[in-house]
Design goal:
Elements: H1 9-18, E1 38-39, E2 45-49, H2 52-55, E3 66-67, H3 68-73, H4 95-105, E4 109-115, H5 116-119, H6 130-134, H7 142-157, E5 163-168, H8 170-178, H9 193-215, H10 217-220, E6 223-229, E7 232-235, H11 241-264, H12 269-281, H13 294-300, E8 306-310, E9 314-319, H14 331-334, E10 337-340, H15 358-370, E11 376-380, H16 395-414, E12 418-423, E13 443-445, E14 454-456, H17 458-469, E15 471-472, H18 475-516, H19 519-530, E16 538-539, E17 542-547
Parallel strand pairs: 2-4, 2-12, 3-16, 5-6, 6-8, 7-9, 8-11, 11-12
Antiparallel strand pairs: 1-15, 4-17, 5-17, 9-10, 13-14
């Protein structure tokens, strides 16, 4: 990794030019270690988040249809340890318990999702198979079906929900669902699948926005946005124009892919240039990146009342020329760049998640500059841990939240229009292809207990103090919050560890009894036969919305 160094005047000019010359943010400053004590604007909204499949459980209860994640997770080898979200946190049955946790934290909002097949078991108002018959987000027809689902949500819940998010992290839906196949529905269409899925997602978002705008806004007075997840990309060599351009290209292929059409009507020029040129060099007649018609550009542009931003980490970026060829084309090789990390960055959990707080401020300022300083709600930000043992004293999560929230405060001081923050996540939960091996929650969930009890981690007390103070009053007080949070969790941690040990002992006895019973293997075999491996009622995804609850702080 190349060492960080001071910018020269020439380098400053190149980077600022590349990032569209932000007037209020000084890109030359390297104050990564500084901490700013102060408070957030009056009315700033504090929250936490979750999603339907990751927390609800009850996958086949009360008439719910099958989602693509139900089908995907039931296929052997798709999820670590072959785990599923069939029961997860049992949030479907523990609504009152979880609302009590939100009240305890004194949250202003809670971001969660509505499961499409729980409202419409087959996906639409008449019987149809969206993924298996039509190919899901590869097919333009899904735009209208998604609009039907959203319209039903507005009809049923719009009198209470005032902040709707059409899609959460569409990058993941497109790339991991239709390019790499790591996520449901597990489709692998290298070089085309992600672009086509994203194209239809953007059209679906715009259609839903217009539906709300023409049919519901006057009556319900709500807002429609989209939540985009993105890492920050920082040039490895700040004296290299190629690295500077590669770093911006990284962010444009991530956030700009969706934000630029929604705010400006078309894909980022750099995406059109790179994908188009590579498509021609491959001998293709047209670009693998789809195009919008003039009418579509006009229809899509401006369909965002607020922008949700999910952010977790940062990468150093350098220029890298990738080889050409039909078989080698992919979303990743189209970018002509390499991602690097500093080995000194903390990485307590997910292999991709390094704690790099200063990248958050830079990303928020990038959004301000590129898209006219839109209203922003941070809809996901948090850190995971990978631990075999029970641990409630999550000091590293306290540090992560402290540093990242402070960088957001600095961004607001820069003039970025951030109105709210959502800690990710309220609970430990099913983490997609990682199963239950990673934990993001403020509250620990004991998944081995059928009742799925929740236990507060130390970060609960720390985050609660940030909320009640609306920021960071002074150094002495903030340090005191941390000390008290860790002290409080120590006794709870010992108690939970004791309970876990008892459960482990009981599990070992139960395991012995089960393996001794030949009926067990017969039951497993029957289950595999009865539950179809290819589902005929596969629905696509959940529509995410931001619901402002608990407006009164207790």
């Amino acid at each position: 990794m190349l060492p960080r160094c001071a910018f020269s005047v020439c380098h400053v000019f190149m980077l600022v030019l590349c990032l569209s010359a932000a007037e209020d943010f000084d890109w030359t400053k390297n104050d990564h270690g500084s901490f700013y004590y102060g408070t957030f604007p009056v009315g700033f909204s504090w929250g936490a988040g979750s999603s339907a499949y990751q927390t609800e459980g009850a996958w086949d209860k009360d008439g719910k249809g099958l989602s693509i994640w139900d089908v995907f997770s039931h296929k052997k080898g798709k999820i670590q340890q072959n785990e599923t979200g069939d029961s997860s946190c049992e949030g479907y049955y523990k609504v009152k318990d979880d609302v009590s946790l939100m009240k305890e934290l004194k949250l202003n909002h809670y971001r969660f999702s509505i499961s499409w097949p729980r409202l419409m078991p087959t996906g639409i108002k008449c019987e149809l198979v969206l993924q298996e018959k039509y190919g899901g987000w590869q097919n333009i027809s899904i735009v209208n079906y998604f609009n039907e689902f959203a319209n039903l949500c507005f009809e049923r819940f719009g009198d209470r929900v005032k902040h709707w998010i059409t899609f959460n992290n569409p990058w993941s839906v497109a790339v991991e669902g239709y390019e790499t196949g790591e996520h449901a529905p597990g489709v692998r269409l290298r070089g085309t699948g992600a672009y086509r899925a994203a194209h239809h997602i953007i059209k679906a978002h715009a259609k839903v926005w217009h539906t709300y705008d023409t049919q519901w806004r006057a009556k319900q007075k709500g807002l429609i946005g989209i939540s985009l997840s993105g890492d920050w990309g920082e040039p490895v060599d700040i004296s290299s124009q190629k690295d500077i351009e590669a770093a911006e290209r990284y962010v444009q292929f991530y956030v700009g892919w969706f934000a630029t059409p929604i705010f400006h009507g078309d894909y980022p020029q750099v995406m059109k240039d790179f994908v188009g040129r590579k498509s021609v060099q491959q001998g293709l007649g047209t670009s693998r990146l789809p195009t919008f018609s003039p009418q579509e550009k006009s229809y899509i542009k401006g369909t965002c009342d607020f922008l949700g931003i999910g952010h977790f980490t940062t990468r150093y970026i350098t220029q890298k020329n990738n080889p050409l060829g039909r078989s080698s084309s992919s979303y990743f090789t189209d970018r002509d760049l390499a991602e690097l990390v500093d080995p000194r960055w903390p990485d307590p959990g997910s292999e991709w998640l390094y704690s790099v707080p200063w990248g958050f401020r830079r990303l928020l300022n990038f959004v301000k500059t590129q898209y006219g300083n839109p209203v922003i709600y941070v809809t996901e930000n948090g850190v995971s841990e990978k631990m075999l043992c029970t641990e409630l004293c999550d000091d590293w999560r306290i540090q992560y939240y402290k540093d990242y929230i402070n960088e957001m405060l600095k961004a607001i001081k820069d003039g970025v229009n951030v109105k709210g923050y959502t800690a990710w996540s309220l609970l430990d939960k099913f983490e997609w292809d990682e199963g239950y091996s990673e934990r993001f929650g403020l509250y620990y969930v004991d998944f081995r207990n059928k009742n799925k009890p929740r236990y507060p981690k130390a970060s609960v007390q720390f985050y609660k103090r940030i909320i009640s103070s609306n920021g960071f009053p002074n150094q002495r007080e903030v340090e005191n919050w941390r000390r008290k949070a860790v002290e409080t969790c120590s006794s709870s941690n010992q108690l939970l560890a004791a309970v876990t040990e008892l459960y482990d002992n009981a599990s070992e006895l139960l395991m012995f009894v089960c393996f001794a019973d030949p009926l067990t293997s017969h039951m497993e075999m029957v289950t595999e036969i009865v539950v179809p491996t290819v589902c005929t009622l596969s629905i696509l995804l959940t529509a995410i919305f931001l619901m402002f609850l608990l407006r009164r702080r207790n």
